[in-house]
Amino acid sequence: MTVKYRIYIDETGNADLGSSDNPNHRFLSLTGVIIALPHVDAVIHPEMEALKREFFDHHADDPVVFHRKDMVNRLGRFEVLKSPELEQAFNARLLECLRKWDYSIITVLMDKREHRDKYQTWKFDPYHYCLAILLERYLFSLERQNAAGDVMIESRGKGDNQRLAESYRTLMGTGSDFVEVGRFQKRITSGEIKIRPKHFNISGLQLADMLAHPSRRDILARLNLLDEEQGRPRPFGDQIVAVLAEKYERYKNEIMGSGLKKLP
Question: How does residue 229 score in pLDDT terms, banded at 50, 70 and 90?
């Protein structure tokens, strides 16, 4: 039986072209983590839950949900990471899991300022443009493996979810500028995108949340687009980036254009 995959998607930044001149809001990125569903069920989910029980006040009826921003800022359930010893132990275990788990990554980065200046009359929504390019690369990955899969993303609010669902339906119903619809329909098994809220405790979405920011920083660094503050060393983040280098999608052993893609 053919193994089914799922791409779990997370965003970093915002899609507002009006904020393109603000250095803090110039870039939008979408990161997709591709995982075989049996591996999620048998390995990633139980091991992620065990990691939570080891370090946090985690119970099935009141689960800890990994969220990078709260973890970095030691908020809520992650306040225990203010202990240097506990933080060091947790970081080591998390890195061990990130290396061990079997998944691949695609990150699409849009320079909104460059996009706005280049396309004076074409104002295609940046978020949905990034999504189309991301799903093209997901399709190419499925084709290389002769596999099929679907798509899941974290809920973003009612209005955003409706626009996202419609954009996805359009892509699955008509294809993209570069990929005909039949190729999408052959490999991507659902005509509707799966949208799930954070509190559902979905391991793949939590993994995407933890990896989206380091992957964005990695592609910015590769393109020499980090400013001085962004470029300063971040010991744990840099260790995650080193793991990602082994996890990016590749085509003919090349990461850029496949696992990492810049727009426009």
Answer: low
Q: What CATH class has 4-263? A: alpha beta
Task: Tell me the two tokens of residue 15.
Answer: 């899609």
Note the pLDDT tens digit of each residue in 74-111. Answer: 999 999 999 999 999 999 999 999 999 999 999 999 99
DSSP string, 219-234: HHHHTT---HHHHS--
Structure tokens at 189: 């098994």
Give the domain ranges of the chain: 4-263
Strands 27-36 and 4-12, by their bridges, are antiparallel
Give the global pTM. Answer: 0.94
Amino acid at 239: Q
Give the separation between CA 82 and CA 72, rounded to whole angstroms: 10
CA distance 78 to 70: 7
E strand or H helix at 70, and its extent?
A: helix 68-72
